[in-house]
Amino acid sequence: MKAAILRFGVACAVATFACASNQFGRAIDSHNWIKAATALDADSALLNDENTVFQAAMLYSFPNRPTYNPVRARALFERLLKEHPTSEMRQAAVDQLSLLYELERVDDASSRKQKELLAQIALLASDTVRLHASIDSIGTRLRAEQEQSSVLRRVTSRLESDLQDRESQLNTLHSELDHLKAIDLRPISRPRGGDTALTAPRRPKP
Questions:
Q1: How far apart are alpha carbons 51 and 72 in whole angstroms?
Q2: What whole-number distance in Å separates Cα of residue 126 and Cα of residue 122?
Q3: pLDDT per residue over 153-194, tens digit each?
Q4: I need a surface site. Which of 72, 78, 96, 147 has the fewest CB within 10 A?
């Protein structure tokens, strides 16, 4: 690890010294990353120099810089390794390229994890809405059943009152009927003479 850092520092020093003679190099020296990127975009011929290719790749390699562009950085490092296989900055480029690929892998894993979390959040949010709707529906049904139960209790109470009234009337009628039956069953009174014949009705006088 220390060897890689040392190689990286030496390569940066060499590349910076070589680039300092142009606008891109001066912007790199002053850490004006935006100006350096602008100068590079304005003159693509700068990339014919291996030192400039390395510095340009580094310009896009760091997440804390406004010019961070890992895709472009990897392309420039790969260009350096392909076009300048014996460059003094070769090993530093290999190390930085490996780091960029590792950062990409971590970013992809983080992105997948974030997507998984977002999917879980969306699912839970959907379930929450569904459960709220179910609870509201059950609450509405319970209130309706309570109201219906209250109505049924009132109807039942009225019917019970009517039943008691009808039973009272029925008992009264039964009593009257029993009374009438008792009158009809009384023995007929007989005259004193012992004659059991019925007395003939008198004719009315003319």
A1: 16
A2: 6
A3: 888 888 888 888 888 888 888 888 777 777 777 665 555 655
A4: 147
Handedness of CA 23, 29, 35, 39 (dihedral sign): positive
Number of neighbouring beta carbons within 10 Å of residue 39: 19
Distance CA 128, CA 5 (A): 52
37 residue type, one letter: A
Distance CA 77, CA 89 (A): 10
Q: What is the pLDDT of residues 17-50, one digit of tens each?
A: 445 568 899 999 999 999 999 999 998 899 999 9
Report helix, strand or coil for 104: helix
The Cα–Cα gap between 114 and 203 comes to: 124
CA gap 78, 135 in Å, rounded: 60
**Alpha carbon distance 20, 38 (integer Å):** 16
